[in-house]
What we know:
The chain is α+β, with helices and mostly antiparallel strands and 410 residues long. It has helices at 8-18, 36-51, 96-111, 138-143, 149-154, 163-169, 196-199, 238-254, 292-312, 332-344, 359-363, 390-408; strands at residues 55-58, 64-68, 78-83, 120-125, 185-191, 204-210, 212-221, 225-226, 261-263, 267-270, 276-277, 280-289, 316-325, 328-329, 349-354, 369-374. It folds into two domains: 8-211 and 327-408, Zn peptidases (Aminopeptidase), CATH 3.40.630; 212-325, Alpha-Beta Plaits (2-Layer Sandwich), CATH 3.30.70.360.
Amino acid sequence: MDDPRIDGERLWASLMEMAKIGATPAGGVCRLALSDFDKESRDLFITWCEDAGCAISVDRVGNIFARRAGSDDGLAPVVTGSHLDTQPTGGKFDGAYGVLAGLEVMRTLNDHGVETKAPFEAIAWTNEEGCRFTTSMAGSGVFAGVYTLDDIRAHADADGLTFGEELERIGYAGAEAVGGRPIAAYFEAHIEQGPFLEAENKTIGVVTGGQGKRSFEITVAGRESHAGTTPMPARRDALMGAVHMIEEVEALALAKAPEGVGTVGMIEAKPNSRNTIPGSAFFSADLRHPDPAALDDMAAGLKRSCGRIAEARGLTYEMTEVTHYPATKFDEACVSAVRGAAERLGYSHRDIISRAGHDACSMAHIAPAAMIFVPCENGISHAEIENATPDDLAAGCNVLLHAMLQIDGS
Ligand code: GLV
Ligand code: MN
Ligand code: MN
C-alpha cells in the first residue's frame, strides 16, 4: 500500500459547500438540530457518502452511518464522526469538520485503492449542541446507552415541538436500533475551540480527555406588582433574585480559576414589561471543571447560594439539572495512535484536554476513543467568526486517516 494523504482542497471545498446550508449574513451558520437546514445538511452528507460508495444507515435517533466495507466485514468497525447541527450563531467548522473529515477519509481510501481489514464508518450524530433541545450529545449519548431514546424524543424546544416529532418531520427517524453493537475504535477530529494550540503554534492537539460539565436551569418565583407603587422593601422581585444568583455563577468559577468556568447563556423575565416587577425569572447555568470533585463543589455552591438569596428576598426557586457528563479519559492506545500519526506525518503537536463537550465523550463509555484538535483563529468558537486554516484542517484529517489505519492494522 502507498502512503496516502487526504486531499485538503477537496475537504475545504466540502466544508464551504456545507456551510452554505443555514449560512448567516455575518459569515456563520445557524443549523439547529432537526430543523429544515439540518435535514438539508444530512441529505447532502448522504449524497456525498453514497457517491463515495458507502452504504448508508440511519438509526432511530437519527444518527447517520456511512460504511465502507473492509476485507473482513464481520469485524467491529473503526469509526469517526461528529455533528452537523450548530449553535444559533455558530460557525462553519464546529462539528461539520469532523463529519466531513470522515467523508474525506473514505474518499482518500477510494483514491488510493486501500482495502482496510475492518469496515470504516463516518458518522453524523444527532443534536450534539443541545441548544434547541436539551441534552448535548444526545444522538451519541443514546448510542452509548447514556440516555434512553424515549427520554431524548420527549425533549421539547422553546415552541413546544418535541425532538421525536421534529425527527419524524424531517424524515430522519431511521429504522436501525440505536447502538448495541461493538465499535473497534472511535476518533473525532474537531477544531480546538480554545486558544492553546494557536498560542503555542502547534498544528495538532492530541486530546487525552475532556472536562466534565453540569448544566442547570433555574426558575425563580416572586410576586408581580407595580413598578411605581411598590416600596423597595415590599418587593419580591424574581429578576433581582436571579441577578444575584447569576453573579454567584461567575464567582464560583473565579474561585476555581483557571480550570473552573461558569456561564449564564439564557435569561428570561416574566411578564417582561418595563413597569411590572418580574414575578418569575429563568436562567441557565453551565458549570465546567476537569476535576469531578471540584465540579461537584461548584454545583453544590450554586445550590447553596440560590437557597440563601431566595430566602433573603422572599422568593422560591427550582433548579433542574439538564446535562451532567463526567470528565472523560480517552483510551491510551487511541491517544497514542493520534500522537504517533502526528509524529510520523511531521506535524507539531501537544497533548491537550478538551474544554468542550464532544460526541467522543459519549463514545468513550462504550469504545476506545480519542480526538484530534486543530487550531482555530483566536481560539473562538460558538460564534459566527469561527475560523480555521485549510492547512491545519488538512493536517488534522491526515492524522485522523493515519490513526484509523493504525488501529485497523492496515
Ligand atoms: C458543546 O459544544 C458544548 O461543549 O457545550
Ligand atoms: Mn462540536
Ligand atoms: Mn459546539
